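ok trying again, last paste got cut off:
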Amino acid sequence: MPATTTNVWDTGMGTIQEGAQLLDEVEAFLRRFVAFPSEAAAVATTLWAAHAHLLDGFDSTPRLAFLSPEPGSGKTRALEIIETLVPNPMLAVNATPAALFRAIGDTEHAPTVLFDEIDTVFGPKAKDNEDLRGLINAGHRRSGVAYRCVGDGSSQAVVAFKCYAAIALGGLGELPDTVLTRSVIIRMRRRAPHEKVAPYRARLNEPEGHALRARLTSWAKTVADVVRETFPDMPEGINDRPADVWEPLLAVADAAGGQWPERARAACVELVAGSTDPTKVSLGVRLLDDLRAVFTRAGQDKLPSGVIIEQLAELDDAPWAELGGKGLDSRGLARLLKPYTTAEGEPIKPRTVRTPTGTPKGYHAADLADAWARYLPAAAPAPGQGGGPASATRHEAATPNTLTEQAQHPTVSVVADVADFPQADTRAVERGPCLVCGASFQRFEATAHPGTCTTCHTQGRTPAQPQFSRASAHVAPSERSHQPV
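nice, full thing came through this time. structure:
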């Protein structure tokens, strides 16, 4: 439904012009008592509360997760306010899986589960709680069921319990990955001195929430058929699991009209982008990222394994020098890269690398390019520029090289370069051709071997006549003023 659509719904409790008006009031009610970390968080919470009244119209329901690193960040208060807005709320602090199975399985009075202190269930000091984790995960989809044996002794029967239910969670730290990927994540924080909220008094304020809940219930009946039969357009880049998570919320926003479709999609993009901790990546992805940095700084399209390992060990805050107590070796490097594939679908393996002194085994940037494109984020656009990933190919090198040619080719993934490091200077400090082997190179920091490539320097090869300096032909004349003497 277009964002400009205006609807007049007869709710049986008076006429509400535009569902947007009702959602505006729900959002204002939430914001009176909760200091949300962002507008996107308030928008998502409002839409989630409304979607709980339309659960039968969706194929899936997102979990709403209020998480924070410290207590006193507003998680419990957010759940208390939501309790007044959603149908059949069920506060579940330390509820057993058996109790939840039976409550959710009540199809006539299906609850909206509000599970506070979830860190006591999934936290580092808690047990695995696989039954509860399975319930939360399976109930994300309408088709989700859990099978349990019911009865006594030998007269037990297998019963399929319905798991589909709207669930909001609050807790410290993080949730299991399988739950996080099914959640709209709101990262709460302690209220700053300048952030003011009204005190919540249940005796005074609950009736206000209940009045809004009644209006949401009536409005939901008028749009249920529309919501059931339409599928919202996703923002660009939102697909797969994030699309499943946000589809019900965007459908509610489209049904409401006004500014809600636009606000909902902006919130979707913002919260999906912020839902993943960039420091929480697998060892393999960390290796791909660091390999991209090594190849970029070397300015070459192939490197021997020995050179790669030495360069990886020198990276700040990298695990490679102490990995396994002995450090990464060529065998470990091959083992970590084997699960990833080239653009042709072949496992990434070491190949022969021709150097002036021999043909050691190593890796080619062309083999890694597809994995870089699939598993690493693109470089951010330069200030004032939109579109595709930023690339140092905007700053032409004095001598072309293979990586630059790849960046200019539309079918080859752009290899990360200095533009990935916003604080770095985008002018190459040193660049080739190498005075030993003739290979092109460029570096973005000064070294003790400005005229030779990393490979030759590592192998101890030096030019026959060291007739170079950093302010020589290896640096563009316009850049010499920026170079150390």
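cool. The chain has a mean pLDDT of 77. Residues 133 and 302 are 45 Å apart (CA to CA).
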